[in-house]
Amino acid sequence: MQIDAVDQRIIALLVADARASYADIGARVSLSAPAVKRRVDRLRATGVIRGFTAVVDPAAVGWTTEAFVELFCAGRTTPAQIGVAARRHPEVVGAYTVSGEADALVHLRAADIAHLEAALERLRAESFVTSTRSTIVLSRLVESPGVGPSA
């Protein structure tokens, strides 16, 4: 699917505020509200926009401790197996296959170090995990919810 500059701006505006009205977006991209709606509908139908969600501040719910965990897996563990296991743990906020020595990288978020340790121990108990290497996040320097150029 071809995405033009107007589509990119619409996407950036929705990423910044998914509750923005079609009229507000239209005013920013020089289109009518119905024209913006047609474009958003097309972007949704083609899978460019997969949905709309609330972004929760982890500190507001008390989950301020986070770590990135490299997983080293046994034998022929597949990405699908890692994904299924990662979804079992509520502390996992992201899981990725990666290049390099590790088989996957898992982003964990927890209330405190004790909670993080418990989550890590449960993750290590997965049958295919042979070892892990963890890095605790000290501070967030950049965080961006979107892709592409900003609005």
Automatic annotation (TrEMBL):
SMART domains, sorted: HTH_ASNC
Pfam families given in the database record: AsnC_trans_reg (PF01037), HTH_AsnC-type (PF13404)
Domain HTH asnC-type: 3-64
Keywords assigned: DNA-binding, Transcription, Transcription regulation
InterPro entries according to UniProt: AsnC-type_HTH_dom, Dimeric_a/b-barrel, Tscrpt_reg_AsnC-like, Tscrpt_reg_AsnC/Lrp_C, WH-like_DNA-bd_sf, WH_DNA-bd_sf
Keyword DNA-binding: yes
Record keyword DNA-binding present: yes
Domain of life: Bacteria
Name this protein carries in UniProt: Lrp/AsnC family transcriptional regulator
Source organism (scientific name): Micromonospora tarensis
Source lineage: Bacteria, Bacillati, Actinomycetota, Actinomycetes, Micromonosporales
